[in-house]
Design a protein that fits this description.
361 residues, alpha/beta, seven-stranded parallel beta sheet, six-stranded parallel beta sheet, 17 helices, binds uridine-diphosphate-N-acetylglucosamine
């Protein structure tokens, strides 16, 4: 492969590791790949656990950006990416999704005059001050190849005047899900350790600053989980755990008898918890989409979603962070009537490889 084009793939946060797992092997016979980990997520159970479990190759570079304010985090990612791209100049930089790692790498690829590919392009939540929305819009604007997960995302790009380099490939997340289910099955044996039975519990996750950084919404979410009375599995993002410990919510949940607070779990355990759940209660974008693909009813504590198809087809309900509204949304909700492959059929990685093959030829 010496002399072959180099694609630098940048990851930094959990959902990006999950998408790297199926995509890295798909590109390997086409180009040299260099995996760069920004260090945005760094705890063992937020990062390394995913690489081990999904057999993702060790990153070629760790930038060690870590946490901080948005300015600090973006600044560290960009400074380190600038050095990385000058020491190992690639032909292409590939980024995923909408995190600060995505935007930081995209900006520096542009400054270094490198071509940029964006996986999960065209997704919009239309909440223009949300950091993720800004990261998406700006990254798409800078991208030469835009790998789009849905027909709706193609339309969003067209409405912004972006039509060149756009490839509707489906969602890489579907490839990863299908592969994991085929190899590992439904993982029901993982439920016993968490003390729940298939179809008889709610899986809940919360990490969005709007829900967990303010005492009001966080308190309402705690009340809603306890009011459910049936078993709830609650893997906690470190940010959420810290805030719950600070507000006394953690103690309340632990005393509740029905809510089990867990450390962040790896991909296969999360998949087992999800595919066997009665419902999902979340503010995660990725989990809404995974729930849809697996036909699990989802209640999303948010004013808007970037995955509108899931709501339109009846599998996802949006609710404000209010215990009464959450209870009302859950009551009698068993999911949608229709289910369509709006995020593709699990062949996104192959389509991305084909598009790269054409531009590298
Ligand atoms: C980030 C992304 C979000 C994505 C999520 C996936 C941005 C702006 N947000 O949110 O779009 O949905 O990742 O999980 O990029 N922390 C730790 N250990 C870690 C990582 C984080 O303790 O390994 C704590 C730190 O206190 C940190 C906080 O969590 O300040 C938030 O982490 P950060 O990466 O800034 O944002 P996320 O909420 O994870």
């Amino acid at each position: 492969m010496r002399g072959a084009p180099l694609i630098t793939i940048v990851v930094g946060a959990r959902p990006q590791f999950v998408k790297l797992a199926p995509l890295a092997p798909a590109l390997r016979d086409l180009a040299r790949t260099r995996i760069v980990h920004t260090g945005q997520h760094y705890d063992y159970d937020m990062s390394r656990q995913f690489f081990e479990e999904l057999a993702i190759p060790e990153p070629d570079a760790h930038l060690g950006a870590g946490s901080g304010s948005h300015g600090e985090q973006l600044g560290r990612i960009m400074t380190a990416m600038e050095r990385e791209l000058s020491e190992h100049p690639p032909d292409w930089v590939l980024v995923f999704g909408d995190t600060n790692s995505t935007l930081g790498a995209a900006l520096m690829a542009s400054r270094a005059g490198r071509s940029l590919a964006h996986v999960e392009a065209g997704v919009r939540g239309f909440h223009r001050h949300e950091p993720e929305e800004v990261n998406r819009v700006l990254t798409d604007r800078l991208s030469d190849l835009l790998f789009v997960p849905s027909a709706r995302a193609v339309r969003h790009l067209a409405a912004e005047g972006i039509t060149r380099g756009v490839h509707e490939v489906g969602d890489v997340m579907v490839d990863g899900l299908q592969h994991a289910l085929a190899v590992h099955g439904r993982g029901t044996e993982r439920l016993a350790a968490a003390g729940v039975s298939p179809g008889a519990y709610t899986l809940a996750t919360f990490h969005r600053p709007v829900n967990v950084d303010e005492d009001g919404p966080l308190g309402e979410i705690v009340e809603a989980l306890i009011a459910l009375e049936e078993p709830v599995l609650l893997p906690l993002h470190p940010r959420t755990r810290r805030r719950l410990a600070h507000t006394g919510g953690l103690e309340k949940l632990e005393r509740s008898g029905n809510v089990t607070c867990l450390s962040p779990v790896g991909y296969l355990t999360m998949l087992a918890y999800l595919v066997n759940a009665r419902r999902v209660l979340t503010d995660s974008g990725g989990l809404q989409k995974e729930a849809y693909v697996l036909r699990i009813p989802c209640i999303t504590v948010s004013a808007q979603t970037a995955w509108e198809e899931t709501v339109e087809l009846g599998w996802n309900r949006l609710v404000p962070p209010n215990a009464g509204d959450i209870a009302a949304a859950i009551s009698g909700f068993t999911g949608g009537q229709r289910h369509e492959p709006v995020y593709g059929r699990g062949d996104a990685c192959g389509r991305i490889r084909d598009a790269f093959r054409a531009v590298l030829a």
